[in-house]
Amino acid sequence: MKTFSTISSLFEKWIPAFALLLLFASCSKKTETLDTLTLEELMPVKKGKFITYRVDSLIFFNGGKAEKINSYQVRHQFDSLGVDNLNRPMWIVNTYINDSAASGSWTPNGQYTVTFVDNKRAEVNENNLRVIKLYLPVKESFTWLGNSYLPDKPYASYGTNLNISLWNFSYDAINQTERIGNQTINDVTTVLHINESRGVPLVDNTKYASQERSLEKFAKNIGMVYREHYVWENQPNERTSGTPPVTTFDPRLVGFGIKMWMVARN
Question: 140, 192 in Cβ contact below 8 A?
Answer without folding.
Answer: no
